[in-house]
Automatic annotation (TrEMBL):
The chain crosses the membrane at residues 6-27, 39-60, 66-83, 124-149, 155-176, 188-205, 217-237. Keywords: Membrane, Transmembrane, Transmembrane helix. This is GDT1 family protein. The keyword Transferase does not apply. Coiled coil: none annotated. The lineage of its organism: Bacteria, Bacillati, Actinomycetota, Actinomycetes, Mycobacteriales.
Amino acid sequence: MTGGALFVAVFLACAVEAVEAVTIVLAAGTARHWRSAGLGVGAALLTLAAIVAALGPALTAVPLNGLRLVVGGLLLVFGLQWLRKAVLRASGHKALHDEDAIFRTQLASAATATVQSRGIVKDWYAFILSFKGVLLEGLEVAFIALTFGSNQHNVPLAAAAALVAVALVASAGFAIRAPLARVPENTLKFVVGVMLTGFGIFWAGEGAGAQWPGADTALLVIIPVIALLALGLTALLHRTSPPLEVIP
């Protein structure tokens, strides 16, 4: 796997998670209190930094084959889950993911909550909403960057890709003070689901002792095959699909 492929894979996966986190923070700040929402983001980032600092050295201590087997299995869990939802959405069997609708729902919920002040935090609800959103999505970003980087012996490049993705999405979101509804998130999740599933199969196989023909170039076959299977399932399910909906 080349450095460019590693960067693109991590960037796309992390961008999807960043869109969801930014939507939550924007709702907390717009409907409630921007400073409290910002403090929640800062607290979540500090928590994530501590988790990454603890996990990073631990991953490097695991034997490479064992690491690939475990990470490959976890990527398969993530990838297949994303791919299943993407296929169901694309075929019309599951509501489409709409950041505008999610933003409006979060905004409405935040607007009706009571205001509570705790210490330097003037609005505890805004703080907690931002903290949970950034922490949960950030954990997935950290997992993706650490696992991809560790397997390819290039954690700095994977971390850089994750930081660039988060920075670009956050900058765009806060520049327009609105959810990134124009980002083709459903398509991105389909692509990322295919990629994570492909890498999961590849690394789990290597960890179990399999020798892939052509080594890393086998990914050029594995990933397109998974994409074709997913597209085939989408087309098959689309024939019996109900009317498309959007997540309210």
